[in-house]
Every structure is written in structure tokens, then in C-alpha cells.
């Protein structure tokens, strides 16, 4: 560092300047973010009067009770404890290791020096959503019972525990009837047992009075709050210069005066110091509140931010809670800047304070370098610890002493992510920063695992946090080193320590498992070979070998270097990482591989999508086939117009199908992949839409015959679209290669768009024609403009985000499972998935399919599509690298406000959502309907969209309840991917066998023949083939099937029953079609042009229903009251049975 | 179960019994609603035709013939037209065939009446220009209408009586019985297979249809061009000469040029405007004022948005 001071100087002011700039911008115009945070503050402020009703009284009683304790003279430690137990049945909560029985320490009791109430109750910075509301009351131990040397060998903590036990005894006697008393560890610190007083239900009279007030206020149930009575050391009692970080204060070797080297005990030392500085920090905070008006609000924001990320003051929750946040902020208001000036200005408002503090946390990595606030008088060695350090120089305390390296890492990352988010103007900053529950392992991490503490693990260092904590630290450091840059974040955590009753031994941790969470770096995680240091570098190589053991081998590489190398055998990225973990953990935890019980969660979903390493190859093969095809078409010489472009528009060619494309053989029909062809602009197109469509057929025929001539292995078929109007695209050309690859070609004509546009805008035409033209125009644009662009976009992002393609496939699998697929254009589902990659806030981009998929579900469950558009902004690269300097935009960014305005306009125009339901604005389609409407109808419709949201919500609920267990094999599949078929009113079960034969049709087969005669037909077909040079195998390739027979059937049925029945179907191999009766179309008054099959309503029901809308055609004379008809469900089902014929195995109707 | 009513509005109700199928083994009843046909635009066959609502989705001519044979006896049924067919017929190909210019001109000139034989010729041409249907048996829209033409007026009378009788006695005619061949009673896989096959028509036939289309189209275009020429030189009865465009239309290349020119013009105007802004002091003041107003507006907007968010519950409550 010191070697390059110029660089440092340069970095410093730049950071300051950008912060200043940000602040001045914020001052000038209040943003939505500021307004939203103001609202949040208003909402989350606690009503202290109500919540802590009677707290003052209780505190006074506690004080009185403690003061009334009889002092006693010093007694040997064992005797004192015994006496207490005998008299009050209260056990002294001595910290581990408990004092030896024959110890000659003496314990005394005297009246406490002082009482004080500290913590967030005093500063009024609690929030409503906080789960633990406690008032902290400190009781300062009198100097009389202490000795200066008590800082050694836990003596102080024994005395403190004894004091706590006395307090417990007194409180038990005095207020035991109205409150329950327990011991608990302060912040899960096993050195600091405290007495927790939880108020019981109030006396009936009092609670009645409160309930009366409450029923009006309708607030939360009568609060049961807690008061923690915390014994603590007098301020500055222990000599601070003797308890620096490097000092070893737990000396096992009996003789204390000998100057032998003792292992440093930083945690013990810091606890000791912290226990004497409650009042000091209370003063610091009071001072900050006085100087900075918005300090309190900023503390509340910090508390919410930390709480949503799972941080808390307790060791098990990261050791960085509200107290640490506010002290850090208070200190930054005094110091921390350059040349010991204040880093923050007291004139900032709460959001600015919050943002600046987050920026500070994002810039500092406490683990790497101790972070000193103020001018430290000590040497750096006295400050440095193996863990993270935030050193308050004035009070000589490491504020981060409860943090582990893992939690400091996590805090740093969270701050970095939030900082990046707060710089991203287009994202929803507020919700991601404060509202989203970030701390959901299955959504946040790419890999979750749990590890059992092996019995053989022995604790070498005298860390009072216990075996489990030191085990965590060990696992964290090993994994961090082993995974290197494969992982962005490695987090290792434990569970909290429970409370225990006064008469028991101190609680042990509830379980001996630790949880491991990892966020990968997708760019590096798939590396199969790790290069170590070169062999010449003896020292490094030796270190490397020592870490990696036998796995490390010397290899010679092409460039001549000889390196220590690690070779991993797995092929899938996630598996490589698991392989590394399974190798390195047993090696370093000194256990055999079998005894390390490492359980991985998160791979349970992978079985749902066949994610084999061959998949990318299959997609690449499809792409290669397409390129061949493109070259073949471009190579044709006699096409009347020059080919400008051939663009793919199908999901196979953008790596987004559930099953990778397989090319048909003679057994299965080829499945054509959609492509469109663009020609150079030409004036030769006829100026009539119908004529253009015919001209396209001529083009296709020409291309077909030319291709067949030029390439021997190509067969072409001209196919007709199933259209109603002569103005639509009429035909396509299926080009089938002998290899099985097939393409469906459609021709683009620039004049068609112009004509359609003109027809749409022509005011002289009637409304019906113009609407029709508008629909045709949007279909045209979808097919020839948006889908080609979309395909390119998804392909680009699939290479940039390796997890995108599997996420899309898993998501499609989910939509398949719930039979929603038929209602959603595939491109819309891809946009959903892309969205969580482009705006992953508050998390980083997912790097595994499972995480990606769960986040899409999370997004869908929260997406209020009735009032919010989905905006997918691909213009800025800022979300790729959180570095703000790299914020270069390629094209004008998409304006989310414009999309909202547009959605608002649609909702005003079409409140029933008959034309537009979802709005998904992209760079290429700012209007946002290209991917959400098909043929003028919304896709999905309102009913289906609501169903999607409901399903996503219940899925997310399950994910929350299950936690990381959702990733366990089978759990994920069974809970999320099994549809409840009982929801459907009608279930049509298709016959798999008949479907299979129906999917294979040969050319030249007699139109009337049944499937039984197929064998003969093939022969006939061969005999009558034009091309003698084709062999029998080619000739017997079935006709291409663009739409699966079952889909065709459902399509036809949906067209026939557009009104009363909505059909649901998933993937192609899904043989159960669900049907739901439309609740809006049930009983109607009779008239011509009703949609659907109606029967006269049962006589009883036809009372006065019908006279509401009596719009009979040409005035009926028989003005009967009950012209009401209702949907004839049975007749419809019978009709479906007739239409489906042998395709349908059976139809199940709900309730029958 | 015999239906309790025989009429609804001015329609008679004809229940039809539907035989059970293995996939849905439950006998059901379908209701047809009939009355005399009285369309808004009368046709010569109105007196001997019936208007039907709620024709089953799998209806064919054979089904209706069998139905009326069961009601009236053989030889009374002449034809049936379904809703979608009538619509298709109204959208004659011929109208679409007219080149754009011809269509515009046709509205100017009082067109001479088409002669009978010309119409017939057009119909023939259209038939050849039509592309084959991809479905062997199109599905009808559920609840759709149909018009049945019977042999004579008397048959209509008798049919309505028979309907009333059937409804009363509970002896309903059976759908898809009698003259309907066994394989046509259900559609199923053979129907889907035939669709796959019909989707790929014979290339020669498709080519012929396209050729026929362009024969007609080119002739029309020629006619239109001639008409335009004539109109240019001949005054109409009021003595006015219609102004028509010369020949052809703007080619895309020229369109692009026009676009370019427009862009340049806009740019020029923009530059000019730019030069003149902030020229006077009042302009500067006004601009500042505008900016301020904009800021206020944005702030108001934000506030409204937050207000709207507050109305939605839970937006400001951190999730737990």
C-alpha cells in the first residue's frame, strides 16, 4: 500500500466526490425513493405507549428489587453458588468452562453502582416488524466486588454470572408472579448470560381496560414485551492497554505471572471491553441524535435493511445489528473521512445518511484490513484480529467482534448489491432495498448444503464461542480458499442459542449442523482445470500442495509452463463445485470422507429438465443445421429477388425448449423449426394484400423446387395455414433434410406491412375492417419483426448468462406441469426468465437454474399485472457489472414511466381486459403487446393470468415454508410440479397410443383410410413418388408435424367453445387436458348468436333472471318471463367426445 | 326426460338424443332451436327454409339429412348452410382481387351492371383460384346457426309439427343415426390425420390456383388501367374530368428517398430553432420557469404514485 501512495490519493477523493455529487442531486429534487422511505418510516414507527404499556413501572420495580438484595461478604465460589441454589433453587449460569470446584476465587455481592436503560428503546428506533422487542436495562457491578485482575481467566465473567443469578433470585421473589424469568445469552455470546423478564398476561382488571382501548384501535394483540437485565462492568475499570486484541487472557498454565506466550483471545477481550462500554456508547448515540436531526430515522432504515437481510446483533445472525449500525453511523458523523474529518455531514436527511452508510460498507472490506475509526494510539498489531475489525479508536473497541469472516463477507456483498441498486435509476429501488425479504436461502443462494459437526472435531483455540463457531470459521476459510473465484459469496452459519430457565444448566446449541450457502460466479464456476503456482516457485507450490493434498499434480502445458494442477472430473458446473467441496472438506476437517455428512440441497430440480452436458451440443446442432439451410437458400441462383436475411423465430433456435431438439428419423415425424425469409426491397410486389399472399406462395414453390434440384437430401412440402381470411399469410414451405432437420419457411413482404398499416389508418373504411387490419398488422409485426429480434436477444443473453437457458427450460416445465402452456406464447415465458436476470435486485444474478426458476416464481407471485407493466430493459450494461463507471448505454433506455402510462391507458380503454391483460415492454417493442397478444386476443387471458399468479403464490409459500429443503431430491418436484387435477371441471384423458399413430402421416395416404391400413399406404406412396432416385427410407419419412395432434385437437376445441369452456394443456406428451367452465358465461337470456351450447334453464330457476337484458332478435311476441337458457354442460362434453373420437380415452367430469 | 317446454321465444325446441360413447358413457340430450327463416334481406328460398340455432359443433349435411328424414320421412331435405359458410361466401374472393387502384376508381365511376354470364365466369375463375381447404370437415362454432332448406313450404309446416310432437312425446330423434356412416359419427384421429395430409396440397394444384389467381388479377389490373385512362380523357355527365394518378406507384427506393428528404428538412428546422432559442432573455426566463414547473409536476406525480402504493396494503411493510 505505502509503496504506491499516489494511487491511494487518487482513489480517495474520487469516492468522496461521487458521494457528494449524489447527495447534491438528491437535495435538489426529492425522488420517489425519498417519498417512499418517508412513508415507510411513518408506517414502521412503533407506538411506544401502547407496546410498552407499564414498562416504566416494571423497570422501577426491577430496580427496587435489585436494590433490596442483601449484600454479603466474599465466599468461595463453590459455596456461594451452592448457597444460592439452596436458598432460591437458582443455578448460577457460569460460562464454560465452569470454575473448578476447589477454586479459591471469592464471590461477593454488593449494591450495584448504577442503573440505566440503554438500547433502541431509549433512542426510539424500534420498528413494527421487529420480532424481538426488548428493553435493555444495565446494572453496573460495584467496584467493591471486583478486582483489577479479574480480566484474567474469566474471573470477571464468573462474578458477573453470579451477580446475574442474584438478580434473578431477587426478581423471582419480587415479580415472579406477574412476569416469567429466564436466562439468555446476550447476542448469543456465551460469556454474557442475562436475565430476561417477559411480562405475563396482565391482571384481569388492567387487561380489560386495555382491551377496551384496543378494540377501537384494532392494534396487534396486547404486547408482551421483554426487559433484559444486563449486569455489566463499570466504565473503564479494566486496563484497556492490557486487553488488546493480541493479548491472551485465558491462561491455562496455572502460574499467571510467567511471561509465557498465550494464544490471543480476541473475542474474550472484546467482550470484556464491550461489557464496560454500554454507557459510553449510549453517550455517543445521544450526541449523534443531538447533532443530526435525521439520525434516528436513518437508524430505523438501517435496522429494516439489516433485518430484511437476516442480520442482527446476535453472533448467530452475523453480529452486525442495529446497535453496530447506529454506532458506525454516529462515528462516521464525527470521523472516518480524510484527515480525520467527519465522513458524513449532520445536515443530510435520513435516506442520504442511509445511502452513504451503505456506500461505506460497500467500499470497506473489514476482513482484509482493519478499519480504524479515529486516530488509533495503539500499534496496528494490537488492533488486528483474524476476524473482521471495525475499530473505534476512542473507546478502543472492535465493533465487529461478534462478526465472523463469513458474515462480514456477506454484509460487504449485500452493501455492494444495494449500492449498485441505488445507482440503478430504472430499477425499483425501494422495494428491493427495504421490502423484499432477501434472506431466503433458496432464492438467494445457488447452492445450499448442511454439514454435521463431526465428533472428532476438537477445538484448539480457547474461543468461548464454542466448538461449533470455530468449526464454522474453519469450514468457511477452507471453502473460500478451495472455491476461489468460482464463488462470489461463501456463507457458513449456525442456529441461535435458546433461552433457558433459572434452575437449569446453560443451554447448548439446539443442533450440531451448520449450514453452508454459496453464490457462484457463473463465469468461473464451470472451470474443470485449476492452475496452481509453477513448480519452480517452491514455496508457493509447497503451500498449494499442502492445501490440496494428493489432488494436486504437476502438469506440463502447451506453453511450456509446468504448474501444479487440479483436474476435476465432473462436467456440469454445479457438480464440479460439489466435487470440490466433497474432496476438500474431509481433507481439512481431518475426518474420513464417510464421516463428513454433507447434504446438498438444490439439485432436486435438475432431474426435471434433462440438463445433461449433451444439451448445449443438441442446441448447437440445431443451430448448425439452420446455418446449413441458410447457406443452401442463399446459394440458390434463380430466385427472383435477392435474399436479404433468413431469421429463426422458434424456441429451438434460441436454446429455450424443455427438451433439446432431436431430429426426426423415419420413425418419428420431423418437427419443423420456424424461420422467416426477408428479400431485398422491391417494387414488384402487387399492391394488394391478397395478391401479395398468392405471390408468396409462388415464391415458396419456386424456392422449394430450386432447393430440391440443388440438394439431393432435401424434400420440400408446401403447406397451407389454417386461416379464415385471404389477407393472412396463406402458406409456408417445409424443408426437410435427410438428417431429419426440418424448417418451416415464411416469406416477408415489406409492402404487406405498408398496405396493412394504410388499411388500419384509413378512416373511410368501416370499423370492423380496420380492427381486422390492425390485428393482422400486429400479427405481421410479431412474426417478422419482434420474433426475429427476440430470438437474437435470447440467444445473446443465453451465452452471457449460462443459467438463463436452463432457467427458461425449468420455467417452461413448470408451466407445462400446471397446464398453462397453451395460453402463453413461449417468448413471453422467456421474457419472464430474462427479467430476473436483468434486474435481479436485491440479489446478484442467479447462476443456477433452480435459483433462477424460484426467483421467476417469486417475481410472478408478486407481479401485480393489473397495474404494473413488465419492463425489460436491455439497453444498459450496468446490471452486468455493478461498477458505475461501466454504465454505458447502447441505445436509449426504456422508460418505465411510459410503459405505466400506456398500461393505464389500456386499463381505462378496456377495463374488462378483453384485449390487453399483461403488458411486457421491451426495447424493440415499447408498446408492450407484441408478446402478450395473439390474433387480437390477450395471451394469456385474464382468467389464466390470475391462475398463474395464484399458482406462483402458493408455490412461493411452499418454498418459504420448506426453506432449503425445497431443493432436496423429490421435494421440489412433488411440491411444485405436480398439478392438482381436481381443480379442473372437466378432464379429458387422451389415448397415448392413438395420438402416437396420429402424429405420423405419410404422403399419398388415402385421405379416407383409417390408421389400420397404414402399412399398405406406405407402399402405395412409394410407388407413386416422383423421384425415383430417392431410396425407400427417405420416401418413408412421415410428413412434418408442425402442431402435435393433441394440440390441434385442443386448438380446434378452443375455437369451437371460445365462450363457456377454457382448456388447459401443458407439454406435447401431456395426455390430460383440463377444462374449466367460465363462471361468467352460465345463465343467459335466450337470443341468437349466443356463444356455446345452451339448454332451456330448469323451470324453477327461471324466475326473474331473464328480464334484465331482453335483447331478442326482431321483437319476439311470446314475451315469456323465463327465456333463460343455461350452458348445456353435458351436451358439450358429449360433443367433445364425438369430436375427439378415438383420440379420447375417457372424459372425467367433476362431481361425477 | 321430456322437456317441460316446447318453445322459447318464437323458436321451437327440438331435443335430440345423443347416443353414449365409450369415452363418455352417458346418454345426453342436445337442444336445437328452430323457426321459419326470416332474414333481414329476403331470399327466394325463405318460405321453405328453417332457421336453426345451436347446431352441434360436429354438424354436417349428412347429419341434418338424417335428422329431417327421421322427422319428415325421406326426400324432404334439400340442403343446409352453416353460419361460417355463409360468411365465407359473402367475402367473395372477387372483391379482394381488385387491385387497389381499381377499387379507388370504381367508387368514382358509376359502374355498369354486371352481366349474368360474366358473373358465372367469375365464379368459375374464383373456384379455380381458391386454395384447397386444410380440414376435411370443419368444426362448427358451438351454438352456431344454420339454415335448412326443405323441399317445399308444406315440409316446413310439417317439420315444425313433428318437432312439437317429438318434444311432447319424448321420442327424440337420434343424432348421427340413419344415413350417417359409422366412421362419420365421431371425428377423432382419422380427422386429424386427414388434416395433416390436407395441409400439404399437391404442389401442382397449388401452383395452378396461384396461376389462375394472377390471370384474373392481371386482367383486372389491366381493366383498371384502361378505366383510369378513359376517365382521364372523358368528362362525366356533369362535365368534370376525374383527376387520376398517372401510372404505377412510388417504388420503395423512391419512398426511402422521400423519407431521407423529410428527415433532412426536419433537421434543418431543428437547427434553426436551436439557434434562435436562448436568444432573448425572456426565453431563458421562460425556460427556467418551465423547468421548475416540470420539477413540481414530477414531484406531484411521485407523490401520487406513493399515495397509490399506500392504498395497496402491504407495500410499505417489510416482508417477514
TrEMBL record, chain A:
<dbReference type="InterPro" id="IPR035082">
    <property type="entry name" value="Nrap_D1"/>
</dbReference>
<keyword id="KW-0698">rRNA processing</keyword>
<feature type="domain" description="Nrap protein">
    <location>
        <begin position="801"/>
        <end position="966"/>
    </location>
</feature>
<feature type="domain" description="Nrap protein">
    <location>
        <begin position="444"/>
        <end position="590"/>
    </location>
</feature>
<dbReference type="InterPro" id="IPR035370">
    <property type="entry name" value="Nrap_D5"/>
</dbReference>
<dbReference type="Pfam" id="PF03813">
    <property type="entry name" value="Nrap"/>
</dbReference>
<dbReference type="Pfam" id="PF17407">
    <property type="entry name" value="Nrap_D6"/>
</dbReference>
<feature type="compositionally biased region" description="Polar residues">
    <location>
        <begin position="874"/>
        <end position="891"/>
    </location>
</feature>
<dbReference type="InterPro" id="IPR035371">
    <property type="entry name" value="Nrap_D6"/>
</dbReference>
<keyword id="KW-0687">Ribonucleoprotein</keyword>
<dbReference type="GO" id="GO:0006364">
    <property type="term" value="P:rRNA processing"/>
</dbReference>
<feature type="domain" description="Nrap protein">
    <location>
        <begin position="294"/>
        <end position="437"/>
    </location>
</feature>
<dbReference type="GO" id="GO:0032545">
    <property type="term" value="C:CURI complex"/>
</dbReference>
<keyword id="KW-0539">Nucleus</keyword>
<feature type="compositionally biased region" description="Acidic residues">
    <location>
        <begin position="1106"/>
        <end position="1125"/>
    </location>
</feature>
<comment type="similarity">
    <text>Belongs to the NRAP family.</text>
</comment>
<dbReference type="InterPro" id="IPR035367">
    <property type="entry name" value="Nrap_D2"/>
</dbReference>
<dbReference type="GO" id="GO:0006409">
    <property type="term" value="P:tRNA export from nucleus"/>
</dbReference>
<dbReference type="InterPro" id="IPR035369">
    <property type="entry name" value="Nrap_D4"/>
</dbReference>
<dbReference type="GO" id="GO:0034456">
    <property type="term" value="C:UTP-C complex"/>
</dbReference>
<dbReference type="Pfam" id="PF17406">
    <property type="entry name" value="Nrap_D5"/>
</dbReference>
<dbReference type="InterPro" id="IPR035368">
    <property type="entry name" value="Nrap_D3"/>
</dbReference>
UniProtKB/TrEMBL annotation, chain B:
<dbReference type="Pfam" id="PF12923">
    <property type="entry name" value="RRP7"/>
</dbReference>
<dbReference type="GO" id="GO:0032545">
    <property type="term" value="C:CURI complex"/>
</dbReference>
<comment type="similarity">
    <text>Belongs to the RRP7 family.</text>
</comment>
<dbReference type="InterPro" id="IPR024326">
    <property type="entry name" value="RRP7_C"/>
</dbReference>
<protein>
    <submittedName>
        <fullName>Ribosomal RNA-processing protein 7</fullName>
    </submittedName>
</protein>
<dbReference type="InterPro" id="IPR040447">
    <property type="entry name" value="RRM_Rrp7"/>
</dbReference>
<dbReference type="InterPro" id="IPR040446">
    <property type="entry name" value="RRP7"/>
</dbReference>
<dbReference type="GO" id="GO:0000028">
    <property type="term" value="P:ribosomal small subunit assembly"/>
</dbReference>
<feature type="coiled-coil region">
    <location>
        <begin position="255"/>
        <end position="309"/>
    </location>
</feature>
<feature type="domain" description="Rrp7 RRM-like N-terminal">
    <location>
        <begin position="10"/>
        <end position="179"/>
    </location>
</feature>
<feature type="region of interest" description="Disordered">
    <location>
        <begin position="105"/>
        <end position="138"/>
    </location>
</feature>
<feature type="domain" description="Ribosomal RNA-processing protein 7 C-terminal">
    <location>
        <begin position="198"/>
        <end position="319"/>
    </location>
</feature>
<feature type="compositionally biased region" description="Basic and acidic residues">
    <location>
        <begin position="120"/>
        <end position="130"/>
    </location>
</feature>
<keyword id="KW-0175">Coiled coil</keyword>
<dbReference type="Pfam" id="PF17799">
    <property type="entry name" value="RRM_Rrp7"/>
</dbReference>
<dbReference type="GO" id="GO:0034456">
    <property type="term" value="C:UTP-C complex"/>
</dbReference>
<dbReference type="GO" id="GO:0006364">
    <property type="term" value="P:rRNA processing"/>
</dbReference>
Amino acid at each position: 500500500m505505502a509503496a504506491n501512495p499516489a494511487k491511494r490519493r487518487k482513489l480517495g477523493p474520487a469516492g468522496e466526490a461521487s458521494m457528494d455529487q449524489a447527495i447534491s442531486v438528491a437535495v435538489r429534487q426529492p425522488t420517489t425513493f425519498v417519498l417512499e422511505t418517508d412513508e415507510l418510516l411513518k408506517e414502521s414507527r412503533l407506538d411506544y405507549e401502547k407496546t410498552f404499556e407499564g414498562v416504566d413501572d416494571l423497570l422501577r420495580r426491577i430496580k427496587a428489587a435489585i436494590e433490596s438484595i442483601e449484600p454479603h461478604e466474599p465466599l468461595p465460589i463453590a459455596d456461594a453458588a451452592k448457597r444460592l441454589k439452596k436458598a432460591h433453587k437458582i443455578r448460577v449460569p457460569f460460562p464454560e468452562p465452569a470454575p473448578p470446584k476447589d477454586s479459591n476465587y471469592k464471590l461477593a455481592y454488593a449494591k450495584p453502582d448504577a442503573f440505566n436503560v440503554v438500547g433502541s428503546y431509549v433512542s426510539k428506533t424500534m420498528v413494527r416488524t421487529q420480532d424481538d422487542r426488548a428493553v435493555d436495562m444495565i446494572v453496573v457491578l460495584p467496584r467493591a466486588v471486583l478486582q483489577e485482575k479479574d480480566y484474567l481467566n474469566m474471573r470477571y465473567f464468573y462474578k458477573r454470572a453470579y451477580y446475574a443469578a442474584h438478580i434473578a433470585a431477587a426478581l423471582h421473589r419480587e415479580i415472579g408472579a406477574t412476569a416469567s424469568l429466564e436466562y439468555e445469552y446476550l447476542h448469543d455470546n456465551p460469556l454474557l448470560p442475562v436475565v430476561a423478564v417477559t411480562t405475563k398476561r396482565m391482571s384481569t382488571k388492567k387487561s380489560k381496560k386495555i382491551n377496551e382501548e384496543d378494540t377501537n384501535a384494532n392494534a396487534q394483540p396486547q404486547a408482551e414485551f421483554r426487559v433484559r437485565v444486563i449486569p455489566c462492568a463499570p466504565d473503564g475499570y479494566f486496563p484497556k492497554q492490557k486487553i488488546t486484541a493480541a493479548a491472551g487472557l485465558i491462561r491455562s498454565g496455572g502460574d499467571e505471572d510467567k511471561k509465557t506466550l498465550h494464544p490471543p483471545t480476541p473475542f474474550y477481550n472484546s467482550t470484556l471491553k464491550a461489557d464496560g462500554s454500554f454507557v459510553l456508547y449510549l453517550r455517543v448515540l445521544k450526541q449523534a441524535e443531538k447533532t443530526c436531526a435525521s439520525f434516528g430515522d436513518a437508524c430505523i432504515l438501517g435496522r429494516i435493511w439489516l433485518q430484511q437481510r437476516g442480520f442482527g446483533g446476535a453472533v448467530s445472525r452475523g453480529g452486525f445489528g442495529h446497535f453496530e449500525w447506529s454506532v458506525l453511523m454516529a462515528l462516521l458523523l464525527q470521523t472516518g473521512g480524510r484527515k480525520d474529518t467527519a465522513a458524513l455531514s449532520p445536515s443530510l436527511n435520513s435516506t442520504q445518511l442511509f445511502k452513504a452508510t451503505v456506500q461505506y460498507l460497500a467500499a470497506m472490506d473489514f476482513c482484509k484490513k482493519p478499519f480504524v475509526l479515529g486516530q488509533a494510539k495503539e500499534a496496528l498489531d494490537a488492533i488486528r484480529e483474524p476476524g473482521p475489525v471495525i475499530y473505534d479508536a476512542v473507546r478502543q473497541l472492535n465493533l465487529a467482534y461478534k462478526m465472523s469472516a463469513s458474515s462480514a463477507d456477506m454484509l460487504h456483498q449485500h452493501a455492494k448489491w444495494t449500492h449498485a441498486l441505488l445507482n440503478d435509476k430504472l430499477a425499483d429501488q425501494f422495494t428491493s432495498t427495504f421490502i423484499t425479504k432477501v434472506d431466503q436461502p433458496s432464492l438467494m443462494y445457488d447452492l445450499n448444503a448442511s454439514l454435521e459437526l463431526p465428533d472428532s472435531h476438537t477445538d484448539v483455540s480457547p474461543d468461548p464461542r464454542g466448538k461449533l463457531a470455530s468449526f464454522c470459521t474453519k469450514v468457511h476459510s477452507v471453502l473460500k480458499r478451495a472455491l476461489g473465484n468460482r464463488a462470489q459469496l461463501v456463507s457458513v452459519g449456525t442456529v441461535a442459542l435458546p433461552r433457558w430457565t433459572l434452575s437449569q444448566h446453560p443451554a447448548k446449541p439446539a443442533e450440531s449442523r451448520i449450514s453452508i450457502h454459496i453464490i457462484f460466479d457463473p463465469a468461473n464456476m464451470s472451470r474443470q482445470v485449476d492452475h496452481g503456482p509453477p513448480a519452480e516457485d517452491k514455496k508457493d507450490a509447497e503451500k498449494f500442495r499442502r492445501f490440496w493434498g494428493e489432488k494436486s499434480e504437476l502438469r506440463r502445458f502447451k506453453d511450456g509452463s509446468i504448474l501444479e494442477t487440479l483436474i476435476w472430473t465432473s462436467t456440469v458446473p454445479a457438480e464440479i463445485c460439489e466435487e470440490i467441496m466433497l474432496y476438500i472438506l474431509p481433507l481439512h476437517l481431518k475426518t474420513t470422507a464417510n464421516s463428513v455428512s454433507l447434504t446438498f440441497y438444490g439439485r432436486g430440480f435438475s432431474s426435471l429438465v434433462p440438463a445433461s452436458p449433451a444439451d448445449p451440443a443438441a442446441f448447437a446442432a440445431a443451430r448448425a443445421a439452420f446455418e446449413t439451410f441458410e447457406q443452401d437458400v442463399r446459394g440458390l441462383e434463380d430466385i427472383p429477388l435477392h435474399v436479404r436475411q433468413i431469421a429463426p423465430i422458434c424456441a429451438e433456435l434460441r436454446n429455450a425448449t424443455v427438451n433439446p431438439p432431436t431430429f426426426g428419423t423415419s420413425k418419428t415425424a420431423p418437427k419443423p423449426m420456424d424461420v422467416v425469409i426477408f428479400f431485398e426491397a422491391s417494387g414488384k410486389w402487387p399492391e394488394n394484400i391478397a395478391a401479395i399472399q398468392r405471390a408468396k406462395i409462388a415464391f415458396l414453390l419456386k424456392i422449394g423446387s430450386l432447393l430440391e434440384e440443388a440438394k439431393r437430401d432435401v424434400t420440400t412440402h408446401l403447406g397451407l395455414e389454417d386461416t379464415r381470411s385471404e389477407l393472412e399469410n396463406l402458406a409456408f414451405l417445409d424443408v426437410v433434410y435427410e438428417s431429419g432437420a426440418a424448417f418451416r419457411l415464411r416469406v416477408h413482404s415489406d409492402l404487406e406491412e405498408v398496405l396493412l398499416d394504410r388499411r388500419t389508418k384509413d378512416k373511410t373504411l368501416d370499423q370492423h375492417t380496420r380492427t381486422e387490419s390492425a390485428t393482422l398488422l400486429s400479427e405481421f409485426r410479431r412474426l417478422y419483426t419482434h420474433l426475429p429480434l427476440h430470438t437474437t436477444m435470447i440467444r445473446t443473453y443465453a451465452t452471457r448468462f449460462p443459467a438463463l437457458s436452463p432457467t427458461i427450460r425449468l420455467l417452461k416445465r413448470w408451466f407445462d406441469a400446471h397446464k398453462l402452456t397453451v395460453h402463453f406464447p413461449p417468448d413471453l415465458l422467456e421474457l419472464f426468465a430474462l427479467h430476473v436476470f436483468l434486474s435481479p435486485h436485491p440479489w446478484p444474478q442467479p447462476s443456477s437454474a433452480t435459483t433462477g426458476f424460484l426467483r421467476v416464481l417469486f417475481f410472478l407471485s408478486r407481479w401485480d399485472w393489473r397495474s404494473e407493466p413488465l419492463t425489460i430493459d436491455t439497453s444498459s450494461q450496468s446490471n452486468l457489472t455493478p461498477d458505475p463507471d461501466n454504465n454505458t448505454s447502447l441505445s436509449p433506455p426504456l422508460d418505465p414511466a411510459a410503459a405505466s402510462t400506456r398500461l393505464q391507458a389500456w386499463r381505462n380503454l378496456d377495463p374488462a381486459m378483453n384485449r390487453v391483460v399483461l403488458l411486457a415492454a421491451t426495447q424493440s417493442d415499447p408498446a408492450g403487446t407484441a408478446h402478450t397478444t395473439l390474433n387480437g386476443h390477450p395471451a394469456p387471458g385474464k382468467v389464466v393470468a390470475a391462475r398463474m399468479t395464484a399458482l406462483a403464490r402458493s408455490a412461493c409459500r411452499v418454498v418459504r415454508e420448506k426453506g432449503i429443503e425445497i431443493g432436496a431430491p423429490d421435494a421440489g418436484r412433488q411440491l411444485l410440479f405436480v398439478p392438482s387435477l381436481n381443480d379442473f371441471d372437466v378432464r379429458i384423458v387422451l389415448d397415448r397410443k392413438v395420438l402416437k399413430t396420429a402424429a405420423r402421416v405419410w404422403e399419398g395416404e388415402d385421405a379416407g383410410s383409417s390408421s389400420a391400413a397404414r402399412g399398405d399406404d406406405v407402399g402405395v406412396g412409394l410407388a407413386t413418388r416422383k423421384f425415383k432416385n430417392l431410396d425407400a427410407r427417405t420416401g418413408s419419412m412421415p410428413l412434418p408435424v408442425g402442431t402435435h395432434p393433441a394440440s390441434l385437437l385442443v386448438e380446434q376445441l378452443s375455437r369451437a367453445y371460445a365462450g363457456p369452456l377454457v382448456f388447459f394443456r401443458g407439454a406435447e406428451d401431456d395426455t390430460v387436458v383440463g377444462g374449466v367452465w367460465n363462471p361468467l358465461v352460465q345463465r343467459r337470456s335466450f337470443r341468437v348468436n349466443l356463444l356455446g351450447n345452451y339448454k332451456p334453464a330448469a323451470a324453477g330457476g327461471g324466475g326473474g333472471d331473464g328480464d334484465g337484458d331482453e335483447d331478442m332478435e326482431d321483437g319476439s311476441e311470446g314475451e315469456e318471463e323465463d327465456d333463460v337458457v343455461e350452458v348445456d354442460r353435458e351436451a358439450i362434453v358429449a360433443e367433445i367426445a364425438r369430436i375427439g373420437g378415438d383420440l379420447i380415452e375417457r372424459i372425467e367430469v367433476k362431481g361425477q | 326426460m321430456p322437456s317441460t317446454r316446447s318453445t322459447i321465444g318464437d323458436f321451437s325446441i327440438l331435443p335430440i338424443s345423443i347416443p353414449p360413447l365409450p369415452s363418455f358413457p352417458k346418454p345426453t340430450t342436445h337442444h336445437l332451436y328452430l323457426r321459419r327463416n326470416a332474414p333481414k334481406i329476403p331470399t327466394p328460398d325463405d318460405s321453405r327454409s328453417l332457421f336453426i340455432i345451436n347446431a352441434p359443433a360436429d354438424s354436417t349435411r349428412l347429419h341434418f339429412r338424417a335428422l329431417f328424414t327421421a322427422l319428415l320421412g325421406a326426400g324432404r331435405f334439400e340442403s343446409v348452410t352453416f353460419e361460417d359458410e355463409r360468411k365465407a361466401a359473402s367475402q367473395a374472393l372477387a372483391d379482394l382481387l381488385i387491385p387497389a387502384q381499381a377499387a379507388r376508381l370504381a367508387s368514382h365511376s358509376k359502374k355498369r351492371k354486371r352481366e349474368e354470364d360474366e358473373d358465372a365466369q367469375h365464379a368459375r375463375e374464383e373456384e379455380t383460384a381458391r386454395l384447397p381447404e386444410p380440414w376435411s370437415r370443419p368444426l362448427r362454432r358451438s351454438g352456431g346457426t344454420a339454415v335448412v332448406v326443405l323441399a317445399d313450404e308444406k315440409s316446413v309446416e310439417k317439420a315444425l309439427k313433428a318437432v312439437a310432437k317429438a318434444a311432447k312425446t319424448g321420442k327424440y330423434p337420434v343424432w348421427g343415426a340413419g344415413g350417417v356412416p359409422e366412421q362419420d359419427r365421431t371425428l377423432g384421429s382419422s380427422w386429424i390425420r386427414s388434416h395433416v395430409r390436407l395441409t400439404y396440397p399437391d404442389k401442382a394444384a397449388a401452383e395452378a390456383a396461384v396461376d389462375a389467381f394472377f390471370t384474373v388479377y392481371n386482367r383486372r389490373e389491366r381493366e383498371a388501367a384502361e378505366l383510369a385512362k378513359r376517365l382521364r380523357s372523358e368528362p362525366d355527365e356533369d362535365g368534370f374530368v376525374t383527376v387520376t394518378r398517372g401510372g404505377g406507384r412510388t417504388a420503395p427506393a423512391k419512398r426511402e428517398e422521400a423519407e431521407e428528404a423529410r428527415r433532412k428538412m426536419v433537421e434543418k428546422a431543428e437547427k434553426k430553432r436551436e439557434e434562435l432559442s436562448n436568444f432573448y432573455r425572456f426565453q431563458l426566463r421562460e425556460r427556467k420557469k418551465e423547468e421548475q414547473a416540470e420539477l413540481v409536476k414530477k414531484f406531484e406525480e411521485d407523490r401520487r404514485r406513493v399515495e397509490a402504493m399506500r392504498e395497496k396494503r402491504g407495500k410499505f411493510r417489510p416482508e417477514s
